[in-house]
Design brief:
The structure is a homodimer.
Chain A (H helix, E strand, L loop, with lengths): L1 E7 L8 E5 H7 L6 E6 L2 E10 L7 E4 L1 H4 L9 E6 L4 H10 L6 H12 L5 H14 L3 H13 L11 E5 L9 H10 L4 E5 L9 H8 L6 H11 L1 E5 L7 H10 L7 H14 L4 E8 L8 H18 L2 E8 L7 E2 L1 H12 L5 H18 L7 H10 L2 H12 L16 E6 L4 E6 L1 H10 L9 E4 L6 E2 L4 E7 L2 H13 L3 E4 L8
Parallel strand pairs in A: 1-5, 2-4, 7-10, 8-9, 10-11
Antiparallel strand pairs in A: 1-6, 2-5, 3-4, 3-6, 12-15, 13-17, 14-16, 14-18, 15-17
């Protein structure tokens, strides 16, 4: 143990880190990324060690903001710094590396240490890599799901809570904003928590935010759901799965999606809001996250199996993910499409898909006979019930319930990209479309993005408009157009399919 | 691109990191652990992004010390911050995760990015985990070795350069300090670079430092080897394998020793000093790093095969690693043993083993006939030639060449640990002995450690001295003795081997 003078660095490190002078670290026999326990009065906090030769003097300890909070009142005071034993969970990570199947209590230990900042980035990345290579059994996946759920703040909404989820990857696929009001119209509870965009031009939370605030407390969410039956809020504002956010941080740099982690991450959040019935949208096809339909089916079976293990009835729809859905891509443009769709004037592919999903939920819950859910959903939409319900939701969340599609601010700069040839459209690539919309400024500029004027299989002639790009500034617009002219986002097919030499 | 005002944080992060305000990061579309390129005048530097809500204001960028150096002269000035593409090597890490065998140019890209701080801890840890689980082919190991070697600063010593290496794990096993002067006595060049302790009570560099300074420049090392034929210096002071140090930093927290990395790390350093002949000591047995002799042999064959691929003749000795070697454990106590051994008065197991290793080298180089190397080494030692050569080396490195064993400062506090029973010594555990010596203060306190008075197979009676612990202070001594009384470091065997019920 050493007694060191605390020094607030006034810098956030994104996790609980302290800075030790190299000499003091040597004295304590701790290395970079080891853990120490800080004690100040009755308070104590575990932190990860970072080393410095000059940043802090011998006899001092530098506290990043994340540590400061919990050792408040100790500025300038002497802190006891104890060497912490390696947490037990490090052994379990090693076990996973060596190919073992982790048990519930081992997953619990890992996830508890993740949430409490007792694992360094090195250890956490190793856990993710091991999970990726070794894979999870269904029992292990259920154990991780339960561990994540247990460490989060659950919200109770009573019985018959329904939910939907899409694994993502399809531009413009904003079905949630239609499914939720349809479902809530028949008196079912649908407390929908959604994410913001990570790599796409818009997440559901980004799009909803065009219509109403999405950051709400648990208390407020409970009140809204009680009053109007549903909400569409940002997951990040509630503490449903704190472990998940910390794991995603290290999954991002290598875009690692270990399937067991993906499943657990999604289902733990569903469990946290007490979902009883969940429908999952799995888009497959060229340019989607999953190219092969059989892989999509396999994933679907795993969701269903996992649901059984943790007490959620799951149904999966394998959908066509080979091209974008709807017209608008980007928060404002998508929100406009949603308002149009609620008035019966929206893009038909988006409306059809939303009714498929909502219909499936209506059947699962027993509100509709098998095979009749979609028609019921469509009827709810056509009757104007869903539109009224959506406006109740918007109002409950603090938005303008009288908003009209034309009120939504778009652009103001815009340019049309035209076809340079004639032919039949063979493919519209989700990833390339997303890149163009992001270059235009989405999702940070809510009003940026694009309207897509064509779809696969359509004939186009030279000079026909393919899409319109919207941006806040001329510079952003130019950047997006330069990219659009470079990328084969809309691909025309010729007559010749193959050439045999 | 954003223009941000630079702010020196005056803190080291251990790697090239910059702190961005969350809003600016969002503007740039960069996440935690992404990379940016900083440009200031003609200077440019890649750095890893860390995020902060309050540590730096919007419009500012915080520079940790490692970045400051290369963007000097830019304090308070505006820096251009560009989003860096993910380095190509991230793809290769992903390939390795997916089980592919990496090619030379892929390993080169990874190692170049490691050295130039273009990989985050997350990416680097993932590479280590993937290497650990997937393993390396011998070609891949050679590719990594070559990549590490290429990125380091090689030193040329001309022809017939010999070297030795021990994979470690045996307390007191300080043979290098005898092998080097024996070999240099016959006119061979042995520019030995050694490490400090990482987890043991003494590394070779720590022990040598009791006799002479070990941090020398490449120029100085070349001069010394030219003049006296050999040196025993600290690897860390020269830039032989900068990649290696950065990889070891992330291997440490989970004690991950992917075999391919271990082999490459050792052999790249041998190649860097131009070694032509290398003998490798692989201790095996209970309490050693490798318990099983067959595993030891397998490792030995890999060293030999790798040597062939990279042009080094390698011979391996599988040695008994089931108990400590010599008497003293800890830098000063080991240095004392070495001086005694050079005068013909040292521990016989240490002397015998050193002569085995030196003899093997003499045979490999053709100085001795096959089977006659050990006797020749012993003769060089007995004649006093090795003692004179060692004193030349000590002098060349700036130490006192007239130092006598009794000049070496030990303790001053000491206590004898006695046997609590009578019996035959069954096992002396390297790891437990090391823990006691470290608790006494070694290697940070050079004079701390222990003298071991017994060895396996010996009969002891109740009250016989097992070992003497030395420490700088009464507190340290007491801590070590408490531990010694708790741990079964010296284990007595009974007559009953097994009990069948």
């Amino acid at each position: 143990m050493l007694k060191l003078k605390s020094k607030f660095l006034n810098i956030g490190a994104g996790r609980a880190v302290v800075l030790l002078n190299k000499d003091d670290a040597e004295e304590l026999s701790v290395h970079m990324s080891d853990r120490v326990i800080l004690k100040c009065g009755k308070k104590s906090k575990t932190a990860i060690v970072d080393l410095s030769e000059k940043g802090v003097a011998k006899g001092e300890i530098g506290l990043f903001n994340e540590v400061k909070k919990e050792i408040s009142g100790c500025k300038g005071r002497v802190i006891e710094v104890h060497v912490a034993e390696k947490p037990e969970s490090v052994q379990y990570i090693k076990k996973k590396l060596d190919g073992a199947e982790l048990k519930q209590k081992e997953m619990d230990a890992i996830i508890s240490d993740v949430v409490n900042d007792r694992l360094s980035d090195v250890e956490l990345s190793t856990f993710v890599a091991a999970s990726y290579i070794r894979g999870y059994s269904i029992d292990e996946t259920a154990a991780l799901t339960t561990a994540i759920f247990n460490m989060g703040e659950g919200i109770d909404f009573g019985n018959k809570v329904v939910d939907k989820h899409c694994i993502g990857g399809v531009a413009g696929n904003r079905t949630t904003l239609l499914v939720v009001p349809i479902i809530a119209s028949v008196g079912l509870k649908m407390p929908k928590t959604s994410s913001r965009s990570i790599t796409s031009p818009a997440g559901t939370a980004d799009t909803m935010e065009v219509l109403a605030p999405v950051s709400h407390s648990v208390k407020k969410i409970q009140k809204m759901v009680k009053e109007v039956g549903a909400c569409i809020v940002w997951t990040g504002a509630v503490n449903l799965a704190p472990a998940d956010d910390k794991i995603i941080r290290v999954r991002h740099p290598l875009s690692l999606d270990p399937q067991g982690m993906l499943l657990a991450s999604i289902m733990a959040k569903k469990k946290s809001v007490g979902s009883d019935f969940v429908v999952i949208d799995i888009p497959v096809g060229k340019g989607a996250k999953i190219a092969d339909i059989n892989q999509g089916k396999e994933l679907g079976h795993k969701f269903i199996e996992l649901g059984k293990k943790i007490g959620i009835e799951v149904d999966c729809l394998i959908t066509d993910g080979s091209q974008p859905i709807g017209i608008g891509i980007g928060p404002a443009l998508e929100a406009r499409d949603i308002l149009l769709a609620l008035q019966g004037k929206g893009p038909q592919d988006l409306v059809g898909k939303a009714c498929d999903l909502a219909g499936k939920l209506l059947e699962m819950v027993g509100k509709a006979q098998k095979g009749e859910g979609k028609a019921m959903a469509q009827e709810i939409l056509n009757s104007g019930q869903a539109d009224r319900k959506m406006r109740e939701i918007i109002k409950a969340q603090g938005g303008n319930s009288r908003i009209k599609p034309e009120d939504i601010k778009i652009g103001p700069e815009k340019a049309v990209v035209k076809s340079k040839a004639s032919g039949k459209i063979k493919h519209i690539d989700n990833k390339l479309i997303a890149r163009i919309a992001k270059t235009a400024g989405a999702p940070k500029d809510k009003s940026a993005g694009m309207d897509l004027h064509v779809s696969s299989g359509e004939d186009v002639h030279i000079g026909d408009a393919l899409f319109t790009v919207y941006a806040k500034s001329k510079e952003k617009l130019r950047e997006a157009i330069v990219l659009a002219n470079k990328l084969p986002a809309v691909e025309l097919g010729g007559i010749i399919l193959e050439e045999i030499e």
